[in-house]
Amino acid sequence: MSGKRPSVELPTIEPSKNVEAARGLQARLDSLNVQLVKRVEELNAHQLESDSALDEETEEKDPAIVVMEVADQIAYLRKLKFQYLEQNAKDKYVKSIVSDIDDAPIVTAEQNKDYRCAKDKLAEAQNNIKLLAPMVEQDYQQVKQATDRAALLSQKIMEARTSLMLLRQTHPRPRLTIPLADQKLAEQVDEMQALSDQVQAIKQKVKSEKQRVKVGTNEVENLRLEASDAEKAVKTTQVEEDDSRLVPLYDWFTASLSLQRSICNLEDSHAESENELRLTYKIDMPSPSPSHRIMITLIFAPDTRRLAAAEVSGLDELGVEPGDVVDAHVQVNDVHGLVAAVLARARTAAST
C-alpha cells in the first residue's frame, strides 16, 4: 500500500465550565466519611480469630513461613481494597442517579457539540489507525526482512574473514600469484608429457622383454623335453662306461644345459634334499650397477612330482612383491610358469 498517510489529530478537551459543580460534589463526598484514609483505625482494629494465637507464635516461626503469611495478608488487603473501591463506585453511581435534578451537573448544548466533535475526531483517528495499520505492518515486515538479511550478511562476512585469516596462516608469504600459477601449470604439463613418453618407452621395452622371455621359456621347455627323452634313453640303453655312443650324447646334453642356463641366466641349481630344489638366477641391472641374484626354492610333495610350496628371495631389493604370482602357480602345479613369471617381474623391475 502506497500513498500519503492521513494525519491523526486527537481531540483536545477544554476545561469544563461546571468546575463549581465538581467542587460541590467533592465537598459532598468528603462529608460522607467514606474515604479509606479516614478509616485507618477501623482497618487496624480488624483481626481474625486466629490472629491472637499467631501473634504469640510469630517469634518461633520460620522466616520463610512468615514471608508466606505476609504475602497472604497483602493479597487479602488488596481484595479488601478492591471491594471498597467497587462499593464506593456503586455508591457514587446510585447517588448520582437518585439525586435531585437541581443538584446534577448541567451539560449545555455547546458541551454536547464539543463532545460530538471530539467523538467524530476520535472515530476519524480510529479509521486512520485502521488504514495505517496494514501499511505499518508491511513496513515492519520489510524492516524485519532487511534486518534478518543484514544479520545473515554480517555472519557470512565474519565467516569469510575467519576463513581468509586461516588461509593466510596456513599459506604464509610469499603466496602463489596467478602468473606464477600459470607458469607452474605449464611446467607441470611439460613434466607430465615427459613422464608419459617415458612410460610409453618402458611399456615398449617391457613388451619386448616379455616376448624375449616367452621365446626363451619355450626353448627351455623344448630343451627340458629333449633332456628328459635323453635321460630315458640313457636308462633304457644299458651300455658300458666306455661306450662311444655316450660321448656325443653327453656333449649334446652339456651344450643344451649351457644353452638353457645362458638363456635364463641360471647360475646355480642345487638340491638341498630329495624334495627341495634351489635355483639361483642372475638379473642384469642397468650400467654401472652390478648384477642382482634371485633365489627360487621349490619344495615338492614327498614321493610325488607335485609342487607343494615355493619361496623367492632377492625381489625385495627390486621393490617387487611376488606373493600372488607364487600362490597362483603353486595351486596349479606350474613350476615353469612360476619361474618364468618371477624372472619376468624381476627383469621388468630391474629395467625400470
From TrEMBL:
It comes from Gymnopilus junonius. Keywords: Coiled coil. PANTHER family: KINETOCHORE PROTEIN SOS7 (PTHR37329:SF1). InterPro entries: Sos7, Sos7_CC. The keyword Coiled coil applies. Residues 76-138 form the Kinetochore protein Sos7 coiled-coil domain. This is Kinetochore protein Sos7 coiled-coil domain-containing protein. It comes from the Eukaryota. The keyword Coiled coil applies. One of its GO terms (cellular component) is kinetochore. Residues 185-240 form a coiled coil. Signal peptide: none annotated. Pfam families: Sos7 (PF20882). GO terms for biological process: attachment of mitotic spindle microtubules to kinetochore; protein localization to kinetochore.
